[in-house]
Structure formats: structure tokens, C-alpha cells
Design brief:
The protein is built from 9 helices and 24 strands. The strands form 4 sheets. A 16-stranded antiparallel beta barrel has the order 3-6-7-8-9-10-11-14-15-16-17-18-20-21-22-24. A two-stranded antiparallel ribbon has the order 1-2. It has 538 residues and is mainly beta. The chain has 2 domains: 123 residues, no CATH class; 409 residues, Porin. Helix content is 13%, strand content 40%.
Length: 538
């Protein structure tokens, strides 16, 4: 079928299953990819779409008017989408036809397609569209540290003249970084139905590996029906919600007082997952949550600002000889990494949570307790964008690497399970967040604990000092020649910081990360100072 729009003609599918006009949005993104579509064409079609009284977002998901769309109709379309080879869900999210059940990476083209999707409906729903922008610039001072490893790298895989490899600070010294430019918001169709999204451009501090991961990242994109109450918020009437897409784990701390993360949040729930989540909240304070998601792959990263470069193309031998990359490995821990697909197949994860909330009548005091657990089957390997290293089980056993027979972690089986508990407590201007997690991944057990305390002073300027303690205690030891022995070291981390709100749109955060760990019976450090300038615009 030939589709003509303006001065542009593209050959694509007929999409007879939609039974609606083919929109400029479809033409602009080629339906499944922007790889062969120029920015000029995209911008042209966005501008055209924004002048239409009925947006192409409505067309894309199969509704001519969302104002009169009931929950039943929406659920019908979602269910239809889950059964169609090219579905309404795929149109709305930009995934290709097999993505929903088989998995497909979130590409730059699809991220741009998301913006085309959102922008195309702004003119038709301006009153219900809320978007905010955020830019983060940092001064970073990372202490220089390096620790030798015993892995038998061949001479051509080491820097010229080196006798051994090292775990090293990712980017030591004084640096100024633009970490991210963010667009985030919500598009509400009515009081209960909305799309939530967050897109990061550049995203330097969330990239793993730092130098070769995606420079544009779709952090959040999900459709939610119902009322969702955040921690310590109690509904006046019984409520429930259902959401589908990519979203934060329900136990994650949503309002952090620092730009850095504690060891527990880094290891277990820093990154979003993709799938389906359901929940209910009762006026008596009881609430529950359940999720069926892709499950974050297990990989390695440094717990400081930069993840480190592990498995990047510039260290692969061949074709490289004696590589000495600018960005180093970091001193990494095991962590639940960023997902690369939407996949509810056999390796997907199931999560359950139950909790209780209470808030005083004067709203001065509130607390929230959540118990949660997750379970999934580890994959033999999950492809990782920008790294030729494997994840999940492939990360634990290096027996397939030439010369590395027997070099492995003491993994057994393929089950990944974790149990945890959260506590939120707010009393006036004082707040406390605590989390404990016990995880077993293929019989590799780790226990993590984290506590954050903060207090807010309103002295014309809003100033909030914060202190956080976290620890990570692995209960296993791998082969001494494993290339990242830091994954079984005992870690402690203190984060000291202060937030200064200079205006409604400008915040400065000054913080110091005090990392200590036990290596060969000796206490070592890898500390970092971070000063962040955060500009927000709504």
C-alpha cells in the first residue's frame, strides 16, 4: 500500500485491523521504526498533527473521542491489543508487532515516535496535558583508586606494558557533567485514565556501559486506569488501579533527597521494569499490589555516579590490541539493571506487596509499612545494549571464555527471589525512609539495608540536610580469578548531603559519598563528591 502525506510518500502496511484513517503519525514513524525517517519529515508531521481537532493519538489507539470512553471500552482495546499481531498497544508504544510477548528493544526511533504521539494530541487536549522539563549539570570529584584482579587476560587485552588488569575508578578527578535533559508528564483523559511518560536525553549517569549505552532513554511510559496513592497517602474511599507499560518498582523510594543512590536502591530497584501492575487501597489504611513484569537483568555497575565501562567495543580483542579506554571498569556490584525489552515470556517476574498506611487528622504525622517479594527465572543470557558481556546466568559463569574454565561464582539453579520491607515516616518537617532486602539469585544470597533521614528548614530558602546509611552483605565468595571480585565484598556507604532550593525552578544539591568495602581482609575506600544544579520548568 502506498501512503501519501504532504510531499512525502511511503510504502507500508495497510493496517486493516485498525479500520481507521492512517494518520500522519503512522507515516512519520514508518509504524515500527524511525531509522529511515528524517527529522524534517517527523517535525513536519508533528506540526500538521497538532492542528487537527481530533488528535492522531485518538486514531492510533482506536478511539474517535476519548471524552466518552469508558473503562470497559479501554480494557476491551487492551485485551484486543494483546491478541493482535499489530495491535493498538503497539501503535501507542511504538513497539514492533512481536514486542508485547516476545520482546523488542526501545530504540531511539521509538522514543522520538513517542514524542510525535504526545505532541499530536496536545492541541486537542491542552487542558489535560501536563509536561515538565528538567536539566541537570554536575561538578564531580571522584577519588582515584585501582585494585588488581587475577583474571588471566592475554597480554594483547591489557594496556601496553601492563602485567595485570585492575578495577579502577570510572573517571577519576574533577569533572563537569551534563547528566540529563528530561521531559516528563501526564496526559489525562479523565479523572481516572491517564498516560504517564518520562524521557531522558543524554542520561549519562544511568547509562551502563557509560560510553556506549543509549543516549536517549524512555524511562517511563505507561497507561494507568484508577486512583494510585503514593506512600503515606490514605484514600477516603476504596480505590484500585491498573497500569501497563514501563514504570518504577512499587517499593522504590520516590522522593530521594540526593542525586546519588544508596547501595540497596542501586542493587535492587534503581531502574524501572515493564509489564502490568494492579493495586488497591482502602480507607482503613490497608493496601496491596501485584505485578507481572519483564524482570530486570542482573549485571554489574559502580555504585557511584558513573556505572563504568564493561564489555564495550573499544576493549574487544580482536580487533583491538592493548586497549586502554578513557573510562574504566569502576568497582562494581551486582545490580538489577535497565531492561532492554518488554517481554512477559517464560523469564518474566511476579511481584506481590501488602502494606498499611496511617495519617493523622492534622496531616502532621504519617507512616507507611510495606512488605514485598519478587520471583523469576534467570535467563541463560539477556542481550545488553553497548556491552558484549552477558547478564543473568551468563555473568556468573565464564567457562565459555577462552582460558577461563572454572572461573565462576558459586551459582546453583536459575531461581531469583527476594523479600523486603519498607518504612516511611513523616513527622512535621522530619522524614525517614528505610528499606531491607534479602535476595537470592541462583543461590547467590545478598542482604541489603538502607536508612535515610532528612529535615526541611524554611528560612526564606528551603534547606534540607540529609544523611543516608546503606550496606550490602553478600553471603558468597567466587573464584579468586573472577574479573569483578568486588561483587562479593562487604560494602558500607554513607551519603551526606544538603538540598538548597534557590527558587521554585532551581535546586542545588551538595553531597559526599563515603564508600568503604572489605577487600582481602582490609578496609578500602572509593569516595566521591557531587554538586548538582537542577533546573526545572513546567
Amino acid at each position: 500500500m502506498t501512503i501519501t502525506a504532504g510531499d512525502y510518500t511511503l510504502n507500508k502496511f495497510g493496517f486493516s485491523s485498525l479500520r481507521r484513517p492512517i494518520s500522519y503519525f503512522h507515516v512519520a514513524i514508518g509504524f515500527s521504526s524511525l531509522d529511515n525517517c528524517s527529522c524534517i519529515i517527523l517535525i513536519h508531521h508533528i506540526l500538521v498533527a497538532m492542528r487537527r481537532p481530533i488528535s492522531y493519538f485518538h486514531v492510533a489507539i482506536g478511539f474517535s473521542s476519548l471524552d466518552n470512553c469508558s473503562c470497559i471500552v479501554l480494557l476491551r482495546h487492551i485485551l484486543v491489543a494483546m491478541r493482535r499481531p499489530i495491535s493498538y498497544f503497539h501503535v501507542a508504544t511504538g513497539f514492533s508487532s512481536s514486542a508485547f510477548l516476545k520482546g523488542n528493544p526501545v530504540t531511539v526511533g521509538r522514543l522520538l515516535a513517542m514524542f510525535a504521539l504526545f505532541c499530536s494530541g496536545v492541541a486537542a487536549a491542552q487542558d489535560n496535558f501536563d509536561i515538565r522539563f528538567e536539566t541537570k549539570v554536575h561538578y564531580r570529584n571522584s577519588e582515584e583508586n585501582r585494585f588488581p584482579v587475577s583474571f588471566p587476560f592475554p597480554p594483547q587485552a591489557l594496556p601496553e606494558g601492563a602485567q595485570t588488569a585492575f578495577l579502577e575508578t570510572v573517571d577519576a578527578g574533577d569533572k563537569v557533567d551534563l547528566s540529563t535533559i528530561t521531559a516528563a508528564g501526564r496526559w489525562s483523559w479523565n479523572e481516572k485514565l491517564a498516560v504517564h511518560f518520562k524521557v531522558d536525553v543524554w542520561d549519562k549517569y544511568d547509562r551502563n556501559p557509560t560510553s556506549e549505552d543509549n543516549k536517549i532513554d524512555l524511562d517511563v511510559f505507561f497507561i494507568r486506569y484508577g486512583e494510585h496513592f503514593r506512600a503515606t497517602r490514605v484514600p477516603l474511599t476504596p480505590s484500585f488501579y491498573a497500569q501497563i507499560g514501563k514504570f518504577a518498582k512499587f517499593e522504590r523510594q520516590r522522593e530521594r533527597r540526593t542525586e546519588s543512590y544508596g547501595l540497596v536502591s542501586t542493587a535492587f530497584n534503581r531502574f524501572e521494569d515493564a509489564g502490568i501492575e494492579l493495586g488497591f487501597q482502602l480507607p482503613i489504611g490497608l493496601y496491596g499490589k501485584a505485578s507481572w513484569t519483564t524482570g530486570n537483568p542482573v549485571f554489574i555497575r559502580d555504585p557511584n555516579a558513573l556505572a563504568g565501562d564493561n564489555g564495550t567495543s573499544d576493549i574487544r580483542v580482536p580487533p583491538n590490541v592493548n586497549p586502554d579506554p578513557e573510562l574504566k571498569t569502576g568497582i562494581p556490584i551486582l545490580y538489577d539493571a535497565e531492561i532492554e525489552s518488554f517481554d512477559l515470556g517464560e523469564d518474566s517476574e511476579v511481584g506481590l506487596g501488602v502494606g498499611y498506611r496511617w495519617r493523622s487528622e492534622d496531616n502532621n504525622t504519617a507512616f507507611d509499612i510495606l512488605l514485598f517479594g519478587y520471583e523469576r527465572t534467570l535467563a541463560q543470557d539477556r542481550g545488553f545494549h553497548g556491552s558484549f558481556y552477558g547478564s543473568d546466568l551468563d555473568l556468573f559463569d565464564l567457562g565459555e571464555v577462552a582460558g577461563a574454565t572454572g572461573i565462576r561464582l558459586p551459582a546453583e539453579g536459575d531461581k531469583k527471589e527476594e523479600l523486603g520491607a519498607n518504612l516511611w515516616l513523616n513527622v512535621g518537617s522530619f522524614s525517614l525512609f528505610a528499606q531491607a532486602v534479602d535476595q537470592e539469585a541462583a543461590n547467590l544470597e545478598r542482604v541489603g539495608k538502607e536508612v535515610e533521614l532528612s529535615y526541611t528548614f524554611d528560612w526564606g530558602l528551603t534547606i534540607s540536610p540529609v544523611i543516608r546509611y546503606s550496606e550490602l552483605d553478600p553471603d558468597f565468595v567466587g573464584n579468586p580469578a573472577y574479573p569483578a571480585p568486588s561483587v562479593w565484598w562487604q560494602w558500607e556507604k554513607y551519603d551526606y548531603g544538603v538540598n538548597i532550593d534557590l527558587s521554585d525552578s532551581l535546586r542545588v544539591i551538595i553531597e559526599y559519598a563515603d564508600n568503604t568495602f572489605i577487600r582481602a581482609g582490609r578496609e578500602e575506600e572509593n569516595n566521591e563528591t557531587l554538586v548538582s544544579f537542577i533546573w526545572r520548568h513546567r
